[in-house]
Every structure is written in structure tokens, then in C-alpha cells.
Amino acid sequence: MSETIPRALSFDWHPFYRELAEKLIPYRARQSDLLAILEKLRARDLPVTPTMDIDESGKKFPLEVMDPFTFFGCFNRGITKKFRLEILAVLKSEFEIEAPLPTDFQGIPILNNQKSWFFGRSFKRKPDDIDRLWEVHAHAFGPDPLSAPAFCQAFDRAMEVKGVSANLTVGLFWMRPDYFLNLDSRMRDYLGIKSAPKLLKLSEYREIVQKVRSQHGPDFPGLSHRVWEGGQAPIEDEDDGDPEEKRLVLIGTWRGVSPAEIQRIRKAIEERGGYANWWSFPIRVEFAPDLQDGFHLYLNSGGGIFQYRFWVESFRTSKGNDGMISPWPEMTDDSDRGKSRASASNAEVFKTWLRVTSVEELEKPITLDWFDPAPGIKRQSLLNPSSFGYAVLTKRVNVVGHASTEPDQYPETTLDGPPSDFALNTIFYGPPGTGKTYRLLTECRGYFGQGRVRMVTFHQSYGYEDFVEGIRPEVVGASSGAIRYEIRHGVFRRICAEAAKDQGHKYALFIDEINRGNISKIFGELISLIEEDKRIGSSNAMTVELPYSGDAFGVPSNLYIIGTMNSADRSIALLDIALRRRFEFIELLPETSLIQGEDGNGSIPDGAGGRIDLRLLLSKINERIEFLFDSDHSIGHAYLMDVRDFGSLANVMRNRIVPLLQEYFYGDWDKIQLVFGDIQGRDKKPHPEQIVTHVVRTPKATFGTEHEALESRRSHEVAEVISPGAIRKIYADSDPAT
Questions:
Q1: Please, is 294 exposed, middle or buried when counting C-beta atoms within 10 Å of its C-beta (0-12, 13-18, 19+)?
Q2: Looking at the predicted structure, is the pLDDT value of residue 574 above 90?
Q3: What is the DSSP string of 29-61?
Q4: Distance CA 588, CA 464 (A)
Q5: Backbone phi, psi, residue 248, to 5°
Q6: Which residue, among 482, 366, 499, has the nearest Cα to 424 in the 3D structure?
């Protein structure tokens, strides 16, 4: 890494942070005043540190203590620059700070929003824990604290507090960045420090600081900026003694949520300061108090599989059928702003709005087994698509991009790497809903260790500059507005560099929707380098000179490139030939045996005393699609994996399968009716129970007179109520197409 600090970095947060830190000294005896300030910030709808404590029984009550580092953490968490500046503006007034407000937060390590306390919950807290933290703060502003016995003793005593680890060095760095070095997990990785943060003693810390100062210079903010310049993922060193598995979380079913949609939401959070996310059902009143301080919403993407979670800072909910307008219009999508529903459908009424401030991807997808129902909740209701699931997480999860100092509790499926017959370049392909992305995120991710997998989704606008390297503009002065251009490395170049430095392990780049990108535009001259015999260290190893940086570049032999391809979008025959001959293809087909239904046998009650066989249903639908179109456009088992009752089946048919068939058949409703058995015989006689209904409109009925040049037309629509018989007849009746 370069040791050169860009001249444009101002680090103008130092004076404000230092003055605020010193202003806190008298508040050791006025902790209630700090809590009152946090509540004032919350009243302005600003995202701040939670202020509800919890006892051993799980009962919540207002926090009664506050230390200076936790208070500082309220504006040094995973929130947007806009919110941080608004919080600091309030604090400037409250504490009468003379230093100007910062214009940047460069080089500042941030806390995880969900673990931003420097102390434990009430039942984990010792009587003098808070005072130990204040004691460190009190001695931190002398001329040379690291050599002062009082500070040394206070530091070592504070390190014994439950909830304190290397995060204490982060807090000291916030307050005196010219003197203290932060030793968060990113900095330790950068410096090659392997010691566990909980065992850190002042003598060890002092030795590290002196060594870093001699090797890297005294500019600790500049060093921190270089370590964090890849983006601010919250540090994960702190442990507040209250594992998340004891906290209430919500489960929301969002079938098929894609990496592209997750990326869109992340971008919205970055640009707007948060994302207003609506749901068509309310939050139950008895659980609302436990959610006031923020909570995780785990997204069920289908089949009870959870790959993503939202952190929700606040919420608004209503039981009314009329819905409610978003309380955060500036964070709301244009299509939903100012509305109380997305359509006339009851499934699209805005009954709950969540203010989401971060989206996290789990290191490994988890299943429903990781959750216990909250008190009074039945397990079978956790995946109800018409309500939230209320649960308690029973295990600790790891999140992509968050380092962890705890032992790995989730063993890999193999020691390192996929089976020997697994090709370096592989594409999983098949119809939608056959588990391509799921296989990437479960089986394939398990082949590689934590931190050795990157994922990207290709799309029509994705290019070489995003994937390999490109030139990006950067504003270098807030006042001058001057712009400079610098070369930024894309995800492919970054993971190639990581893999090349760590030849003892295997790495992977997952490319979702690989066929949606312009391969020639994205890979450019590098397409040849991914071949197995062209990799670095192979018999015909090749390197090329990159066009922007001029650097020599090759692809390491321990990097796997694994993609997914929806065969309904583009068949293998139409793929870029350069891609076809460099990848091996593994076909994934619908597997009806994976559909569980109500009790594992693939059937569900129809609500009228009978049952519907979901496996037979999907098999017959796909048989007809293949006859009318081809097997590439089958429907995968994932569409029915969550179905446990007739209401959810009718919802899937109406809102997911019918629109998919409309896309497949380009609006040819007659073929859709044939798939559902809604018309019979050559004269297309309507079945008594239809999913897609139609009426015949004659020229005379339409225009009032006969027109020889015009023929009668059929007008189609989805039945307002889909009956059990309308679905059962798809597989129970004889083939209506004959």
C-alpha cells in the first residue's frame, strides 16, 4: 500500500472532536445530562445510540449511566455523513463548542450500530465499570499519557470492563488522533498484529504505538485513512456482553430478493441517509416497545433461507386498511412518495414503514433453525408472508465485511476449496427459481474461508471500469470544488490481488446474472487470462498491461470464478462464444421433491377440506410450458418453497407465476390459459373454475354494428378470487390442450 497521503485530505474533524472530548470532563458527575442530550437528538428523529438497558429477565428500562466513549460513539457509528453533521450541529450548541463543524470524517473508524456501547447490560455490569471508563478519559489529555502511571493504571483497569476491547483505542483516537493509535480489526490486519484485543495491556499498546510511529510516521489520522479508504464497514471488536441472540428480531418474507436490489437499497441509504421500506401489515402492539431502540429485520428470500438483514433505526405502523404515507419522504422511492398504497391490491397497502440505515449480507446463509419464536408466537407463523415473524436469534451470526475476534463457530464444509473436479471457471444455469444463487451462497461459499469470497451482479450498464479498473473523479476541496481524477481498482482486480498474496488458500469471485452483462465490455483484454493454463504459475501463464494504470496484471491460479445464468433470459447457445469456451456449465433444474408444503410431503390444505399437491402442480405446469415453449422457461421449485397454506399459494399464483408467464409468452393469454387448464378443447371452451378468465368481445357489441374486416377478440384478466378447484384442476383434470 502506498504511504503517500493525498494532499486534499483536511482531517478538519480534529479540533471539534478534541474540544468536545475535553468539554465532557465535568459530565462524569452529570451522566443524566448526557442521556438527556441523546434523547433530545432522538426527538429530532436522528439515529443515535440506544438508551434502553435490560435486566437478566429480559425486561427493558431506561439507561441510567453513560461514559464518554459511548457518548462519542453516537456520531461515530454506521450512519450517513448527513446525520453525523446534524448530530454534531446540535452538540456544538449544547456544549458551546467554538471549533467549526467538520466538513469530512476521513480516517475515522466507526462502530457497529448494533454494538455501540463500551459497557455491558445491567446484569453484566460491575458497579465501577462506568467510572473506570471516565478515569481513562480524565487522564487522556496530559502531555504524555502513555508514560503517565495514572493513565497506564486506568487503561489496564478499563480493559477489564465487559464490553471493552480494542474499541477503547478507537475511542481514544477519536479524542486525540494526533497521539493515540486506533487498533481496530482493520488496523491490526494492516499492521500484521495478531494479538487478541481483550488481552491488550498498556505496555503492549505503548510498544505498538512507538513502533508504528517509527515505521509509518506520526500521522495516525493519515494512516487510519489509508486503512479505511476502501469503505467504512463498522468495526466488530467490541462485545457488550449482550449477544444479539437475546434480542427480539423480525422476520420478513421477501421472496427472491436479489443482490441487485440489495445494492440499490445500499446506494439509496448512502445518498439519502436511509431507506424507507414499506410492508403491507402492521407491527404487533405488544412487541413495539422492544423494537423502539432499533432492531434487525432478517429477510426470508424463499424456503426459510436468510442471506441479508436490515438494521432498522425506527418505524411507524398502522392497523388501518387505508395505509399510511411514508414519514420519511426524503428517504422514500419516487414511486412510493406521498402514497399510502402501491396499487388497489390489499397486498400493497403501506401499513408499516421502516427506516433502514444499513443492509448487511451474512457470511453464510442461515435457516429458520437459527431462530426461536418470541413468547406467544407459534413457530409455523414465523414465515407467514402476510405478517412479520417475531423471533429471538439463538446463535451469533457473522456479517460480510465485519471482522470477528471470536472463534469461528461455523465450520466450513471442506477445509479449503471445492472438490478437485470443480472447474476454476463454472456457471450454474437453469430456469428461474432453481436455486442458482442459493447454491452460490450456501454450498459454494462453504468451500472458501471467511473473507475469501466477493460477489458482484452483472447488468447492462456494468463495465470494465467497475470490474477491473477505471478513472473516477473526486472532489478535493469542499470550498474550492476542485476535482481530481484517480485510478480506482474494481472488484476483480482487488480479489486477484488478495488471492495472489495468499496462495495457501483458495478464493472465489461470485458473479450473479453473468449473462446479463456485456462480457467483452466487462472483461476486455482479460478474458484470455482466466483460462486455467493462462493463470499465473501455469504452463502458458500470461500477463497484460492494464490500460489505465499501465500495471502488469495476471490472474492467480487459486481464484475461482463462479457465475449464475438464468436460462430464461438467454440460452447457452446465444452466449458470447468467448465465455462459453472458458467456462464449464452445470445445469440446475426444478426439483419438486424439495417442495415441503405444510408437513413435508409437498401438499397443503385447500381451506375447504381437501388438499393440493404442490409437487404435482409444478410438474404439470412445467410439462405444459415445455410443450408450448421450451424447458429453459420452466418454473423453479423456489416459487413454492414457502407455501404452507392456500392463501399463500393463491398469492404466489397471482403475483409471481402469472406475471412470469406473461413475460414468457409475450402476453399471449391463450397459452397462459392452456398452462392453467383454463380453456378446453379446440373451441377453447372455458373451464368452470379458471385462474385466467376471458370474455369474447364481438365487433357488433363493441361498435354497435357488424364490421366484416374485424374479428371477435378475447379480453383476459386474472380471477378476482382464485378457488382451490381452479388450481387443483391443473394437474387433476385430463390435459385440456387435447
A1: buried
A2: no
A3: G-HHHHHHHHHHHHHTT------EEE-TTS-EE
A4: 29
A5: -70, 135
A6: 499
Distances (CA, A) of 358 to 270, 295, 313, 361, 523: 9, 11, 9, 10, 31
Helix (H) or strand (E) holding 84: helix 81-94
C-alpha cell at 325: 404515507
Instruction: Give me the sign of the Cα torsion angle 619, 625, 630, 636.
Output: negative
Helix, strand or coil, per DSSP, at residue 327: coil
3-class DSSP state of 620: helix
Average pLDDT estimate for 661-686? 85
**pTM for this prediction:** 0.49
Q: Do 508 and 560 meet the contact criterion of CB atoms below 8 Å apart?
A: yes
- The amino acid at 304: G
> pLDDT band at residue 350, thresholds of 50, 70 and 90?
very high
CA end-to-end span of the chain, whole Å? 70
- As a whole number of angstroms, the distance between CA 52 and CA 73 comes to 16
| CB distance 280 to 350 below 8 Å | yes
The Cα–Cα gap between 46 and 344 comes to 33
* Phi/psi of residue 19, nearest 5 degrees: -65, -45
Work out the average pLDDT over 666-690: 85
Are 338 and 325 spatial neighbours (Cβ–Cβ below 8 Å)?
A: yes
Grid coordinates in use for 313? 433505526
pLDDT 10s digits, 68-110: 999 999 998 877 788 889 999 999 999 999 999 998 888 888 8
- Residues with Cβ within 8 Å of residue 351, at least 6 apart in sequence: 278, 279, 280, 281, 282, 317, 318, 319, 320, 323, 324
Domains of the chain, earliest start first: 14-228 (no CATH), 244-393 (2.30.130), 425-587 (3.40.50.300), 594-732 (no CATH)
Residues in the chain: 738
Cα distance between residue 251 and residue 380, in whole Å:
12
Distance CA 694, CA 668 (A): 12
Kindly state the cell numbers that stand for 677. Answer: 387448464
CA distances to 189, 351, 583, 699, 717 from 185, in Å: 6, 41, 37, 74, 57
Is pLDDT larger for residue 116 or for residue 93? 93
Q: What angle do CA 220, 223, 226 make, to 5 degrees?
A: 155
How far apart are alpha carbons 518 and 463 in whole angstroms? 8
What are the grid coordinates assigned to 466, written together?
467497475
Cell 444455469, located at residue: 429
Amino acid at 90: V
